[in-house]
């Protein structure tokens, strides 16, 4: 009997302690549940393709703005076969690109990496990235590119004369701007390159470009397969140029010269493959982005005749100071064109050629209570920030006067931000200053038809590449 009483007492004691501890267990579990971060809100779209079609088939302003309006400044989606977290605030962009950049790595599809080259600057981070970026920045610094002004002016005038010589024929402005930008890229990388090398590089580069945004199919005859072969030929051409420089012991101060002359602390030089990858990377970065902005500038000035007259007045004053254009522009003059500068900045904001950038989380990251899982792509949305009325009032209006006052930090990032921002931004802006100067002082142009749409190739450009006619001023 005593044993039964003892057993009953133990059972009673067990259940009593269980009942008394239940609120504490429940509270602990609740606390654990609250502390665990969730994925951001959003839609992952269709299996595999996600929301890729929606992103690339409509105005990116509409796509991104509708997402932000529905889900807030951080949301998830599925783009190009990858789960992504999109970030639409200046603070978030700074978090990913600057203050916590070590938690995220640059990432590109492998198919694109093969065409540019795995050693290219923008595929890397850490010591290698720092060394190569310093070389590129040095070769494209204001001190270096100011010496290129006469050569760039020659390219500008040659291009404009070519467009005029079409005798009133309509040209695709974007395609012509691409040719111009490519020639400037060649100039900044190789200096004065022999015509046969330039022509070979251009021919093969065009093939690579066509395959860059195609489906990565290696079947012979496909655009991607042709691009891989053309990429191999570009590597051979660059090797030949390198070999000739070494034989002639040329000590050029262009980008190729900086790459060839580099030695690390152990005396190690860059391999020809590393040099070729970075040369191709710079050419890729230099062409479409600059060409797209220049095409938009043509359109914005054409659509606002009052603004065009103000720029003409500013540039004519410089033109007359240079004895009617007989003297070349100086670096100091390009730094003293306030109206033109504001037009360039506003064109960069409005067009937002780089709508976003890709990063990949290298660990699980928690931002504002939301989980960004390791391996997910992270996309700071420059376009959303540039078109946010909180930072840029009436963002849909082209208004260069908004840049009479400097924008708030991290609300204007046309060239990115942090250690992976574009090292060639000064060269890009110099191209714009020089082309605008010669264009408005010596020529006039007309956009053909009502061109108010946008197409993507993959960067946003005016519809049909902005069909345009050019004439020389009387």
Automatic annotation (TrEMBL):
Question: Which PROSITE patterns does the protein's record reference?
Answer: CYTOCHROME_P450 (PS00086)
The keyword Nuclease is assigned to this record: no
Pfam families assigned to the protein according to its UniProt record, in alphabetical order: p450
Q: Tell me which CDD domains the record gives.
A: CYP90-like
EC top class named in words:
oxidoreductase
According to its UniProt record, which protein family does this protein belong to?
Belongs to the cytochrome P450 family.
* Descriptive protein name: (+)-abscisic acid 8'-hydroxylase
**Native organism taxonomy:** Eukaryota, Viridiplantae, Streptophyta, Embryophyta, Tracheophyta
């Amino acid at each position: 009997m005593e044993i039964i009483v003892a057993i009953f007492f133990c059972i009673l004691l067990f259940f009593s302690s269980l009942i008394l501890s239940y609120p504490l267990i429940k509270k602990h579990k609740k606390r654990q549940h609250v502390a665990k971060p969730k994925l951001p809100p959003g839609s992952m779209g269709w299996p595999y393709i996600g929301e890729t079609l929606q992103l690339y088939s409509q105005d990116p302003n509409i796509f991104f703005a509708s997402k932000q309006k529905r889900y807030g400044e951080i949301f998830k989606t599925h783009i190009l076969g990858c789960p992504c977290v999109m970030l639409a605030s200046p603070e978030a962009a700074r978090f990913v690109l600057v203050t916590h950049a070590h938690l995220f790595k640059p990432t590109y599809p492998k198919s694109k990496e093969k065409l540019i080259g795995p050693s290219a600057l923008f595929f890397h981070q850490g010591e290698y990235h720092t060394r190569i970026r310093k070389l590129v920045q040095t070769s494209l610094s204001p001190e270096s590119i100011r010496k290129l002004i006469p050569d760039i002016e020659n390219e500008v005038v040659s291009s404009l004369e070519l467009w005029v010589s079409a005798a009133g024929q309509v040209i695709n402005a974007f395609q012509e701007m691409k040719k111009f930008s490519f020639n400037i890229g060649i100039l900044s990388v190789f200096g004065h390159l022999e015509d046969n090398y330039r022509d070979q590089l251009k021919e093969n580069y065009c093939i690579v470009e066509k395959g860059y945004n195609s489906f990565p199919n290696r079947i012979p005859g496909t655009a991607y397969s042709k691009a891989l072969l053309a990429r191999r030929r570009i590597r051979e051409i660059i090797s030949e140029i390198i070999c000739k420089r070494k034989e002639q012991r040329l000590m050029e101060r262009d980008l190729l010269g900086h790459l060839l002359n580099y030695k690390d602390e152990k005396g190690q030089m860059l391999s020809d493959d590393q040099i070729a990858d970075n040369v191709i990377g710079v050419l890729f970065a230099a062409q479409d982005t600059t060409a797209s902005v220049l095409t938009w500038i043509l359109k914005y000035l054409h659509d606002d005749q009052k603004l065009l007259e103000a720029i003409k007045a500013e540039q004519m004053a410089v033109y007359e100071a240079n004895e009617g254009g007989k003297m070349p522009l100086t670096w100091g003059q390009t730094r003293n064109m306030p109206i033109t500068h504001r037009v360039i900045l506003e064109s960069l904001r409005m067009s937002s050629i780089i709508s976003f950038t890709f990063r990949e989380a290298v660990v699980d990251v928690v931002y504002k209570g939301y989980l960004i899982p390791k391996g997910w792509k992270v996309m700071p949305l420059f376009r959303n920030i540039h078109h946010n009325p909180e930072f840029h009032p009436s963002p849909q209006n082209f208004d260069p006067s908004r840049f009479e006052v400097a924008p708030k930090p991290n609300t204007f990032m046309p060239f990115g931000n942090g250690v992976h921002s574009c090292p060639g931004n000064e060269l890009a802006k110099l191209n714009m200053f020089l082309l605008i100067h010669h264009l408005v002082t010596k020529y006039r142009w007309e956009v053909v038809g009502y061109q108010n749409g946008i197409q993507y190739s993959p960067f946003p450009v005016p519809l049909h590449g902005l069909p345009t006619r050019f004439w020389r001023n009387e």
